[in-house]
Amino acid sequence: MSQPETAAAQAADARRAEAGPSFADRLASFGPVIGLVLLCAAGAGLNSDFATMDNALNVLTRTAFIGIIAVGMCFVIILGGIDLSVGSMAALIAGCVIMFINWAAGAVGSPLLAVMLGAGLAILLGGAFGLIHGVLIAKGRIEPFIVTLGTLGIYRAYLTYFADGGALTLENNLADLYAPAYYGSLLGVPVPVIAFLVVALIGAAILNKTAFGRHVQAIGSNEMVARYAAVDVERVKILTYMLLGICVGIATLFYVPRLGSASPTTGLLWELEAIAAVIVGGAALKGGQGSIIGTVVGAILLSVISNILNLTSLISVYLNAAVQGFVIITVAFLQKGRR
Fold it and tell me: Which residues lie across from 79 on neighbouring strands?
């Protein structure tokens, strides 16, 4: 491109920046909320059980696991990365936590302390796995897709090995002690929903109010420019993947008491659901754009779709994953026309 053409392009960009977001962009930013409202209205019309408080709390509780992971995934996608291993990571963390709690109950002599230490181990393992991803991607210069595709198989294979092809199960007394982490409530609100809200608020504060959040967005927008602006790109990438790993650990912490077991099918397709929640929430697949609020709405919207399908039997419940796949492809296609 010649110098006059470059100057003209820069001037056009400046005019667009001064004009602010277009009407289409403003409308698109409210798209997830509009979609959620329309879905809720359709669900209430199709089945009277949909518009009940019990069903709403059930939807939010089931959303909590994927929603917490999606908050971390939002940072990774804004960074311009991806993580395909979160479901397998959650499964391995769940298995390790169960084995540790069963062992620690006798070793430390206190079942309650064993459960608390197991909860801490879930977060520690998540952070460690995220650190491994971040180092391989940032320092090893390996594509995120390749790294997380490899660890997807590694994590689930190790869980299958530890479980000897079956399931790892909490002992009955320990499962009863751990149960309130999933089945308990505070002022009528389930504990996992409260955890989801807290994680989302913290995530929004980090993304929008800290230098780290601004650096994540800058790297996703243009990594080379971020380097010229003296951003420590490698450090930010490592911390971002660690943040996602911690979110996976928190989600697993609340998932373990739900069934009290972990098997090779635990966490299956969670990566699809987490990525779908972020994309449906308005994040750009190429990075640089996204919001925690949009991600939360996206996660709830996908859960509402599944809930409506379960209540109305419009299509087989076995096609829920297919619906999510179609949603991802559709949203990605619609993003092509946006800056």
Answer: none
Q: Shortest CA distance to 149 belongs to which of 126, 125, 133, 165?
A: 133
- Cβ(278)–Cβ(97) below 8 Å: no
CATH 2.60.40 fits 53-335, yes or no: no
Query: Residue 262's beta-bridge partner residues?
Result: 168
Angle between helical axes of 144-162 and 111-138 (0-180°, round to 10): 150
258 has pLDDT over 60 = yes
**Which carries the bigger pLDDT value, residue 247 or residue 259?**
247
- Which two structure tokens, joined as six digits, stand for 265? 């099918």
Residue 274's pLDDT is what?
A: 93
Residue 255: name the closest of 94, 45, 34, 115 by CA. Answer: 94
Residue boundaries of the structural domains of the chain: 53-335
Rounded distance between C-alpha atoms, residue 296 and residue 305, angstroms: 14
25 pLDDT higher than 80: no
CB of 295 within 8 A of CB of 283? Answer: yes
SS (H, E, C) the chain: CCHHHHHHHHHHHHHHHHHCCCHHHHHHHCHHHHHHHHHHHHHHHHCCCCCCHHHHHHHHHHHHHHHHHHHHHHHHHHHCCCCCCHHHHHHHHHHHHHHHHHHHHHHCCCHHHHHHHHHHHHHHHHHHHHHHHHHHHHCCCCCHHHHHHHHHHHHHHHHHHHCCCCCEECCHHHHHHHCHHHHCEECCEEHHHHHHHHHHHHHHHHHHHCHHHHHHHHHHHCHHHHHHCCCCHHHHHHHHHHHHHHHHHHHHHHHHHHHCEECCCCCCCHHHHHHHHHHHCCCCCCCCCCCHHHHHHHHHHHHHHHHHHHHHCCCCHHHHHHHHHHHHHHHHHHHCCCC
Residue 15, both tokens:
């005019």
| 254 contacts: CB under 8 Å, gap ≥ 6 | 64, 65, 68, 181, 182, 191, 192, 195
pTM of the model: 0.88
CA distance 308 to 78: 30
